[in-house]
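Hallway conversation turned thread

IA: we were arguing at lunch whether anyone had actually written out AAA family ATPase end to end. Turns out nobody had. So, for the record, here is the sequence (511 residues) and right after it the structure tokens. Reply here if something looks off.
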Amino acid sequence: MSVARDFDDMEREMGGDAVRAALDAARWPGPETPDYDDQSSAAMPQQSAVSATPYRWREPQSIPRRPWIFGHHHMRGQVGGKFAPGATGKTTHEIATCLSMATGRSFLGPKVWGGPKRVWLWNLEDNGDELARIIQGTAKHWGISEADIGGRLFVDSGLEGATLSLARQTGFEGLVINEPLVGALVRELLEREIDYLTVDPFVSSHSVEENDNGAIDAVVKKWAYVAQAANCAISLTHHVNKAAKPGEITSDAARGASSLVAACRSALVLNRMTADEAKGWGILDEDRRRYFRVYDDKNNRAPPASKSEWFHLVSVDLGNVGDDGFPSDSVGVVTPWTPPDAFEDVRIEHLTKVQEEIHRRGNVRASPQSNRWVGHIVAEVLDLDQKDDADRRKINSIIRQWVMNGALKEVTQPDSNGDPRPFIEVGRWTLNSGRSDEPAPRKSEVRTGAGGAENSPALQKSKGADRYGSSQRWNNDWPSSNRRPAQRNPLQDAYREALPERGNSTEKEES
């Protein structure tokens, strides 16, 4: 029996309409696929009108300044990240940052713009006692009193009930943003007039798959929304991959999705001092872990930093000894630190003497393996010990700098056997060399260290510039931004209208 006869039989028995109804009921219930011939003419959704906006010319001085609040690291309405390996000192550094802002004192280096700030430290991995130890140890070291804080510091611990979960992600629900918490955060930030909120660590502030770029991007951008709505700066502290090479960590080493760094407007990176750096500066290997450097690996809205900011963790005794015989607690406190300068105590006369010796002896070699190495002359003139690792690194650094600025020059010429070798000759003579037959180096081109030259560190600093001739930290004459902008933010107004009355609350101090 053929299929056609089966349908014919069904049609005779049931009727044509009943068979067609049964076929229609068995069809796929989804949308019908149009014929391919008709797809080109299928109706497209009507697109909204597009209009290009002519640029309105503005005088440069009329454009509002970027609302920095702490150096060029943290800005109102923006989210920044801080990335470091475990036990580097990021929490201690973050607490010192908070105290610097709360007091309005720039003891870490970066300037607190516009006076003291109201700061909210929300730590999700330390208890209140441990946070208090670091806070009070930092305050003790820097001579900060309760009056200096002035009620501008707010501290919460996730281990003592102040949990924070901005978003969650499950296989059934997907990504879910905790919108009620977002609203509560904005309202509290506005009511307390918080200028800076730090969340440490970021991973404990959500329940989202850490490697999901889309989800992490959405979470960080929600934090950016909070920063914009509350007109504050927000910092998210985060760990880096354990596989990252110590001393060479960048923001790319941040653990999990790369969208975290991409969504942050600044990315402060902490690197512990390496063994080679410690050796070159004469620091014991067991002490080098107390030194770390910080630099912004991403900030594209500030002048570029010429070098990292170095810090040293000094030990501070809290003096909380009890009657039970146990010793008092000590904590590490972050203090700025300047690496030893290879040109410290090096004067223009030293360079002149080195040039004269090179010119007198001749056949001075560039290779440290040669017995005619130029470093022997530098060591003699500066009274340095070539057998000492720190002194030898200083010698190499000085030679490298003098070659770079042209005071010395490296040339390739045949040695006594006719083989090409690198030699060192005098480049541009110093001004006080008395040699009129050779081109003298300009003062701005020869870095000699403290001493008679106009580009010496002491003289440059007296002119308001650092030893490299640049303006100190870019911020001596940087205009201070107002604490609150003149224009109102509609997001702020919406939240302020919903703020509950708190009775006779004390008036907030304006900074």
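OS: looked through it. Residues 213-230 form the longest helix (18 residues).
IA: good, adding that to the notes. Confidence is low (pLDDT under 50) at residues 26-42, 300-306, 439-486, 502-511.
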